[in-house]
Fold this sequence. Notes:
Bound molecules: adenosine-2'-monophosphate
Order of helices and strands: HEHHHHEHHEEHEHEEE
Strand content: 25-35%
Number of strands: 8
Amino acid sequence: GPLEEMSLPLFFGWFLLSSARDKVRCTSMDFLKTLDTLDAFKKHLSDFTGKAEKEVDLEQYFQSKGTLLHCTTKFCNYGKAEGAKEYVQNPTVKDLYGSAFELSLSALFVTPRTVGARVSLTEEQLLLWPADAEKESESASLPRGSRAHITLGCAENVEPVQTGVDLLEILALQQEGQRGELIEEMELGSLTYYGEGRWLLTLREPICSPACFSSVYG
Length: 218
Ligand code: 2AM
């Protein structure tokens, strides 16, 4: 009945603690600030503006949704999403609910739709990862956990669910053997362009972020 449905959250995920949140926001702001000044970025500006020669301020372009920074594990949609009930019943989910983890953020990525951070999951963290999270990717062979990410911002009229789709797209290109165009070694790491406005910054030092496994009812 409706009461049972009420008892399932909107989503489960790892929620960054406040110190980590500030560090991640600062790093991504630094990255966006630098990216839109690069000649290589300006060369491909029409990916973002639709027209050549216009300027874009990436910090303005992406609106942060004002939500807590988090890495979604399972989107339950209050029980309406496929697999939501099974996820909640998973004993590991119950056992680890409320516990602390350290997330490793290994890359930042930017597309004309979203900006996000890739999260590299440990074996233990993968126990909380739903089996079907990567199914949207056409190349079905991406390893489990590939989609793990933190949404840092979305362009106007773009929903955060797009961030994971964008990440899977970049990873699928890599898996097809596209190495992208290495643009430069930045202080934060190496910047690669994958065409169609897709930029990937592989961090020299992954950002280690303490986070709590919990859920949001929204
Ligand atoms: P995100 O994980 O990419 O940020 C609430 O909407 C949260 O659930 C957001 O964080 C959002 O995206 C995620 N979300 C929304 N719809 C989703 C879906 N269909 N699959 C996976 N995650 C989803």
